[in-house]
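# step 3/5: fold
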Amino acid sequence: MTATPASLTTAPDLPTVPADIRLIVTDMDGTLLDDDKAMPAGMWDLLAELRDRGVLFSPASGRQYATLAKEFAEVSEGMVFIAENGTYVVRDGVELSSDPLERAVAAELARTARRLVAEGVDTGAVVCGKRAAYVERTDEPFLAEVRKYYVEHRVVPDLTAVEDEVIKVALFDFGSAEHGVAPALTGFADTHQVVVSGEHWVDVMNRTANKGAALRGLQRELGITPAQTMVFGDYLNDLEMMDAAEWSFAMANAHPEVTRRARHTAPSNNDNGVLRTIARVLGVPLGRAGQAGRGGELFVTRRVS
């Protein structure tokens, strides 16, 4: 299959009148946020407009719930947060669903991270619980990376003895996660899901846990169909989410696998692609700030055979 570029204003497969979208779900890093981790200009105005129209906006991220809730604190009322790659879904502080990891598996992953470090791999494990994220490694470069995604984190002496309901274990690789840490976790892939969630991150979860599964559960609960759902993503932990919505968009900067899986392509995260695409499909006016990006053509593509 090939993708045929078209102007966002003239793409033939996009609606000439606003589409009936009831749910918008977007990844954060590399998708909604630009490369500086900044929220796009015009975000809060757009969220207010979507709320007025009865459209639910839901962040879906590998980040923990506390981090997402802080990012959207001023507009979080009624918002559903699909956190920890779908393993923990929360609305207004109330858990809607979760997919806990067996504590023995989390402990074995912590020991695996220790072994990799002993072998010279520059990595560290984050045991992700419902209350907080837990780490053993204490050097500032590692903790600086942890703080970006885990506002609630604690340094503990022994990751194998964490007293929390664990939902995921993440390993940070200062090199390439896809070519470094991920191959070392193949032994877990027989029984669990090992997903490269970013350039430097690998997440290990139950086989049943992913953003797509969380999204389908939310759709069932709210009575919203895939045809009424729009999703945006850029990396491998967004793949299943692409299958749960007819309006699926890979960012222009997305991993090739995500581009192949999505029905459409949106402008990059640095070109305010999420907001600009929502505005086009739903017929939402954006002010000058909301239209701003770092340059680049405003386009959407449809996969054709």
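# step 4/5: annotate
The CA atoms of residues 86 and 213 lie 7 Å apart.
# step 5/5: archive (pending)
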